[in-house]
Design a protein that fits this description.
This protein has 144 residues and is an all-alpha fold. 78% of the residues lie in helices and 0% in strands. It has one domain. It has helices at residues 4-27, 36-67, 79-104, 114-143.
């Protein structure tokens, strides 16, 4: 296998984002007894942990792809998910965290498009990671 670490980490990354952002994030609010403050508190904790896992996966993929010096198309495909992760880490997650804290303390913040922007980023990130993973599988199969 040509890039085993990158291949494994790309699909682990996709799995984490899909499980947390597209399932856990909204599902917890449907559990009996979970109030808005409790759900937001859980969400803050889970998304902080997800962010750390995503950075670990991103750094592992980057290291594996950069370790080999050959130029090939999948190498550039990591740029978009990492750029989205940077935007989420430096802007969206802190802003969403601040809104969650306000709500937890009983001060419901006004309307915002931050969640929609975050979800759109997740969709683009997952799609680009799936494309990268598929290309890595093809490169591995061709080089056999």
């Amino acid at each position: 296998m040509h890039h085993p670490i990158a291949l494994i980490c790309v699909f682990v990354w996709v799995g984490f984002v899909c499980a947390i952002s597209f399932m856990e994030a909204w599902l917890k609010f449907h559990a009996h007894g979970v109030t808005l403050p409790i759900g937001l508190g859980i969400g803050r904790l889970v998304f902080q942990a997800l962010n750390l896992v995503e950075w670990a996966m991103a750094l592992a993929v980057l290291a594996d792809l950069l370790w080999r010096r050959e130029a090939w198309p999948p190498r550039g495909l990591i740029v978009l998910p990492v750029l989205i992760l940077i935007i989420q880490s430096l802007w969206l997650l802190p802003a969403l965290d601040e809104r969650a804290l306000l709500a937890i303390h009983g001060h419901l913040p006004g309307p915002s498009h931050l969640h929609l922007i975050y979800v759109a980023g997740e969709v683009v990130k997952v799609a680009s990671l799936i494309i990268l993973g598929t290309r890595l599988v093809r490169v591995t199969a061709v080089q056999g």
